[in-house]
Protein 1
Amino acid sequence: MLHPGLSPEQRTFFEAAVAEISLKRLRDVNRTITGIHSPTGRERELAEWLVSYMQGIGLDASYQPMTELSGNAIGRKRGNDARGTSLLLYAPIDTHMEGDASDLPWCGPVLRPDMQPTPIEQDGMIIGLGASNPKAMATTIAEAVRAVLAVKAPLAGDLLLGYAGGGMPLDVTAAGRRGLSDGVAHLLSRGVHADFGLVMKPGNAVSYEEPGLCWFKVVCEGTLGYAGMRHDLPNFRSSIVPMAKVILELEEWLTKYTVKNTSGLVAPQGWIAAVQGGSGGRAAFPSATTELFLDIRCNPRTPPAEVKAQFAEAIDDIQRRLGVELSWEMVAALPGARTDPENWIIQSARRAWEEVEGKPHPPPRVSSGQTDISMIRNLGIPTARTGWVANPEATPAEYLQGLGGMGVARPEDFVPVCRKLVYSIIDTCMRLRSDTGAVKTA
């Protein structure tokens, strides 16, 4: 299909809306929502704040509960033509940490300022838990929509804002089993749908495919031991020492897995994330069971069943060579997904990028970061990912460690991507579905 640029009317509204973007508002909103604690499974307070904010900028907005403490925020501006193209702008709102002593020591010896839900400002930066990811995303898509509404752009199709809890790759049992993209699945499966989706994430490029994930649990069984007994105690089998060898073998296999399954824009990584066995308070009694947990990312062209089969072969080989007995299971799976790069929304996002950056869009780099975008695509909405690059030279090195700056936001970095979002809103919602390829024929 043809991918025309903005019409003269669209350009007039685009330029007017871009002029409405407020750096002060971006800073104020980002700081405010960074200070509203929203760990996975407990996002209600932030979702309700976003409902109120969306109502204040002219959207019909409502809160969608999932549990007593977890829910989504939905905003809608109805278009003026039933034939108009609809667009969903989406951001998750939950953070991956509790931001208190319960995070210690797995996140490090202390909670840094970027790990705490009490924002501070330093050299133009907002520092606090989730300030950049996901709360910069939530801030910026709201400002893009506000700017478009402020100039009264005549939108033919519906413009939707969706904010979901439960987006982090976590499985939070205590909070009602929230996580693993269940918030956006809840959102979309209950009527919030559009012709196209647009999501802002870190990375100054437009992407059309992202990986999924597969989680595995591996168990090594031994026998309960006692430190006062000799190592050659009859029938004693350690579960910990063999698992240490298994870990080294899996680390080597994971690099081969990445090479084998890399294609398109995805180079799927795998990580050994947790080992559990015994208790520090019972050091005299070696554990009879040691458990290992892995996250293995999967390419859109490698479904979870294929990942599972490859993992099974690896475990069988390790057992045979090491002479150990292991049991294992896949405990979570979210398939990757892609949108045709020629799809309207991908091309619109690329045109937006080139308009704002003033140069041709480069080939996107490969990645391994799993996001809610795969869930949105798998539930039927062609979706583009666009984003921004923070200024790493100005970010203290300690905040780049581990989390890559997720808790450090620089609001002026949001402005260019906000302009890109405005472009695609105008470009898409001011057109009929027949002009954007949203009309499907049998």
Protein 2
Amino acid sequence: MKIAGLVDLQVNGYRGVSFSDPGLTEEGFAGSCRDLSGAATSAFLPTIVTSGREVYERNLPLMARVMGREEFAGRVLGIHVEGPFISAAEGARGAHDLRHICPPDVEFLKRILEWGGGCVRMLTVAAELEGVESLIEYAVGAGVTVSLGHQMAGPEALGRAAAAGAKALTHLGNGVPAVVGRHENPIWAGLAHDGLSAMLITDGHHLPGTLIQTFVRAKGVERVNVTSDASPIAGLLPGRYDTLNNPVVLDETGRLYNPQTGYLVGSSAGMIDCMNYLAGLGLLSVEEMEQVGFYNPLRLIGMEAEAVRPMREVFYDEARGRFEFGEQL
């Protein structure tokens, strides 16, 4: 059964190339985008995580130039800027570099959007930060979808951020400390807010199957978006690496983590891997999986299905219960 495709709203890098690397090159970025389009997804948002000002100033224009090439039209849909306006709390910041996390700054955001050359399509911020509502309003006014993540926000802060224009929750269930209050925490608050859709990392490591089931039931299929949160280590063999300013271990199961903190550092999976883990849970029909893996992500960033131009067709093999790529188009 052919489906429309797979759209990933957060890809931090692929096969050894980090989109936040101060040494990123145009051909390195282009090669990574080609590899990803041919092996893991139909279309995606390359993501730059919390970085120093000089990295935004250098990498965003570089990425925008490459995205302007005809070969990436309909495949690289825009840039996701995750941070730097996120929580500095241990656990909540995840693998983000504490040195570069900063409070909401509309003037800095203006520069980020300028450096992105009109290609920034999504921004992740923490809802509880003082002044974040003005930043959200500016971003939304500039045509950027705002998602809330790497935060310790309660229901009141989420409500204010949503009222300012935020639409989603970046990888709900992750980007929080390992131990939180059992009744009052950002996960429950996010689940309870009907105006915020949820991005879920369904790689089999970030969230257990029972939690994915609970999230899908709470949010409803129409408010769920599957994402990979692929690390620059995605697509590489198991081993020890350094990525995103973290020492990491990629073990035989695909789990990618910092051995010093125990926290995950993105995923080693591509979008098709995440969709196949989801398929194995037996929660959704093929049509519903197509919705959470293609139509919902596009709707969240304000794009139509016709805008996607996949490199390869995507099929669902009903006999095997998994998604597969077809021949190159």
Protein 3
Amino acid sequence: MSPARRTCALAALLLAACGAPHTRDIGALDERFAPRPWTVVSLGSAQDAGMPHLGCFAETCEQARATGTRAAVASLAIVGEEDWYLVDATPDLPEQVHRMGSLPSGVLLTHAHIGHYSGLMFLGKEGMHARGMPVWCSSAMADFLRGNAPWSQLVTLGNIDLRPFDDGRWEGECFPLASGLAVTALRVPHRDEFADTWAFSISHALSAELPRPVLYLPDIDRWEDWEMDIVEVAGRHAAVVVDATFWDDGELGGRDMSGIPHPRVRATMDLLQPLVDAGTCEVVFTHLNHTNPLWDPGSPEALELRRRGFRCTWPDGWRYALRDSARAR
């Protein structure tokens, strides 16, 4: 076991000895999201503004309104036997939390774009007035929340307890959430108007088999802008859940998309196809813009995606038991 993993394992044991943050039942548990020992569960598929999209009258959005079909904003749950953690606080946080049946033991934030942190408002004074909800985020994200109203009120009133993961204690290593669960934060290039952007590699902190982790990366500008090689990074993971904002160029009604970031789904598939063909990594797409043809499971694009061995969090969701990743080598 490496020194970094031993450090993380010891910290996880100490955290477990102190006890997990209190959670309170607030709704009936949806059996589709029933807890399993550290299972990663998708809670949404849409880009920040959801689906159907405000101001969109395209066929996909109109069909969604007509059928009452609504997709929550992309988010992730890391679920254990007794507690769970929420990755990104979306505008759909109340619905997503009620689907889980209890409050999370903590929240992790990837970045400061509105669909990824605005759900924190429901923890505030006008909402449930939470007490000390742990929020793991970068130092830049913590500074943004402390320095800008109304988010600063969440801090001053003690609704949230900010826990920067890049303050020197855990930078470059995993940081523990609970006994047997650890996260490594990876900096990724994205539009960082207010703070920086991170992906999360989620793994068992304590395991003799050292299972490979699951990567959650809902937003990035371009793979070629990243200092890391996505093929190499994906190859070290049992599963990766990645940015699928746009299927390909041309889906914005003739608008020039060359200057609009986000890797296109088809290009990502081309990069990761060898890993999928070899069965060494499960690749799952999420964070779909309302224009993405993958909203239609019967579209040629959705059929192509499945034919090539890839998956999408829409429409059936996605879950992965971290314990299974030890066998996915």
